[in-house]
Amino acid sequence: MSEKRVYLFGNGKAEGNATMRERLGGKGANLAEMNLIGVPVPPGFTITTDCCNEYYEVGQEKIISLLNDEVMAAVKNIETLMNSKFGDAQNPLLVSVRSGARASMPGMMDTILNLGLNDEVAEGMTKKTGNPHFVYDSYRRFVQMYGDVVLEMKPVNKEDRDPFEEIIEKVKERRGITLDKDMSVEELKDLVRLFKEAIKERTGKDFPDDPIEQLWGAVCAVFRSWMNERAILYRKMEGIPDEWGTAVSVMAMVFGNMGETSATGVCFSRDAGNGENLFNGEYLVNAQGEDVVAGIRTPQQITKIGSQRWAERAGVSEEERVANYPSMEETMPEIYKELDELQNKLEQHYHDMQDMEFTVQEGKLWFLQTRNGKRTGTAMVKIAIDLLHEGMIDEKTAIMRCEPQKLDELLHPVFDKKALMNAKVITQGLPASPGAACGQIVFHADDAKAWHEDGRKVVMVRVETSPEDLAGMAAAEGILTARGGMTSHAAVVARGMGKCCVSGAGGINVDYKSKTVEIDGVVYKEGEYISLNGSTGQVYAGEVPTKAAELSGDFKELMDLCNKYTKLLVRTNADTPHDARVAREFGAQGIGLTRTEHMFFEDKKIIAMREMILSENVEGREKALAKLLPYQKADFKGILEAMDGLPVNIRLLDPPLHEFVPHDNAGQEIMAKEMGVDITTIKHRVDSLAENNPMLGHRGCRLGITFPEITAMQTRAILGAACELKKEGKNPMPEIMVPLIGTYHELKQQKDIIYATAKQVFAEYGIEVEYEVGTMIEIPRAALTADLIAKEAQYFSFGTNDLTQMTFGYSRDDIASFLPVYLDKKILKVDPFQVLDQEGVGRLIKYAVKEGRDARPGLRCGICGEHGGEPSSVKFCAKIGMDYASCSPFRVPIARLAAAQAAIEE
Ligand code: PEP
Ligand code: MG
User: Which one of 137, 287, 529, 573 is most buried, by most CB atoms within 10 A?
Assistant: First the structure.
């Protein structure tokens, strides 16, 4: 026997159940399940998701012949249960045809209602119901939907209005009415005729009168809607594979538009916005499902309390509310009671917040759908913790119920939802650092700082940022760059600061000279307002108000639960005491990476740094470094103190020196003055630092090897700070990390300098501090020779930004130019700088962890690239047995949740 393609349900029986989402789609599986638990559902059947894939393989004709016998038998079954007949003029059965994939994709695919109508059936139904208005309203809706979805009746030009709506407008104009419901039966009949004529004219196709032909047309159209543009885009955003396909559920129609005792609505067992345990929803009397979502008529509240709250917000008095906007609870108390009981039953059954659709036909309640409701980040946490307290789920389930990435919403400022509805998107970049920002455009870091000090809110717009822009970035509400990917300077630094950033917005043209930015033909000047959504990458014109996030007690409870189950620790990447404290509050268990270079840009440090760079010999450099030493020591002391009692991993100088010198004339003039030399000397030196490929050039440990005095100074600063703290009774736990190691000889050489310096420092302070020396693994050769390197290193920290860059050979700052094409052509599934490439880069990491630990048992391994805060990458790290992941402070909770989930999944 060939495999089963169609599953029946109805009258409290079903061939499928809730566990069969993969084959029946979420909707089909839940329709079956609702039957099994005694929730009233119109009878029907579900065609499996496999058939959708088959449709794309074998085509329409073949799939119909494969399905024919099963579908015809299934239609018979509905006829028997409904005691009516498909296509029968006396006693007709109408059906709805609905899409439903494994994962919920609300509104992305197509649905057809009232299928089975033709002129003859309409006449018969009129006789039977005595309600011609209802029949012809249903009929014209059907022709409209069918024409739209199945016969693909589209406007000629994109700007044109929907052709059916145009016809409706004309008919209404003729009569001088504005509302659909005021149309007479004759006008509705006219609409049916005009719609059919328009279809014929526009598509060359006759509207099919045969209900069976209608049915097949609709089923195949639902299959096709799996590949419509918005469904494809939604899948891309949500990471839903194209191979899943959609199921098709066919159900007997029940009618919410049969008069004042009929209604249709959507409801939620809890509040999807804030998570409050309050049944809520909206409904319309005498309407069909699409009217509620279409927003043509304003729906009313289901519960009295919901209605009262709505009235309060809308400024409507209680008297007026009761008279004009009563709730279902007040107007249909019997139905309401049943609805409330059943929604409760469904939540109890699924142990999660339900999002349900229902219809009331002449006083009888039917459920058409239930699913686990989509919710905001705040609601997600509250509902998980509430369900745990209510004993509905256990601790592990509560943790698994929360999506790590969604915690982001709780941690950053967000746009005011209402304001966003009127905001205009002017361009799109990468969602480099989440949150919302709104401010006046500035182009230079100095201006950002000055304007900020004046009390103005600014958004800094740059082609790209460099370490020189740090102060400006700190002062800005958000950062927008034209170039750079998810690990570009702007993105990494902004995430570290918890600051909103949109990077790589290729559609913007920045002109520093005229202080303007051109976006899509419009020129925005310095001082004009602009708003950024760092969570979506969208840029808005003007001022879109934002509001701060709040961390609730539920959030803390969730985090405590995570600690109970996790094996992977979470540290933070932090360069300042402030960031360290923020991260510690979020639960970071140490610092996994302190990038020392950022410190050089503050105050007078940059002058000493530049003096060092300008020096031509060791003596000169040492003199300059001696000036830097107290600054560095103070910085390290601050960070070690903020993380007292927890490990702090400080990395030696990493970026190429040219990042510390000015490249424009004005800056070079200032530098010349600071250094007391002429500008040509500066220009020469700056030119001599230029490299063809700076990311592979004179940076990382190569600096410490060519200028060992830098390594010595930084070691002195780190351990000096630690000694002072220890003398003050604190418990500093420094780790010194050597970057960009490719061969173990490099590490050995640097380690010798560190050890020798440490000895001197301890002698000077008359006290010793425990410390460790480890290395970054961020060059493929280092990963491949991890056994040799482990002999020299007390720990490994995987720098997956550089490791990804060098494994793929993609420049981390230039990926934006080709990434969209790569994603589009499916050469890459995701940006590898955002989501760790487990197949390639991950394989190197796994190998290096194993080889490293074989050579040095118990070798501590962590990750400190940007992937350390990305949930799937964190789970990978947990799975391969890393000790910790380190990420920017605002991602610490996300990583903690992902780590706990990884432990539970195991
Ligand atoms: C890395 O390469 O992953 C890393 C953490 O270092 P940076 O981003 O500073 O190069
Ligand atoms: Mg690196």
Answer: 573
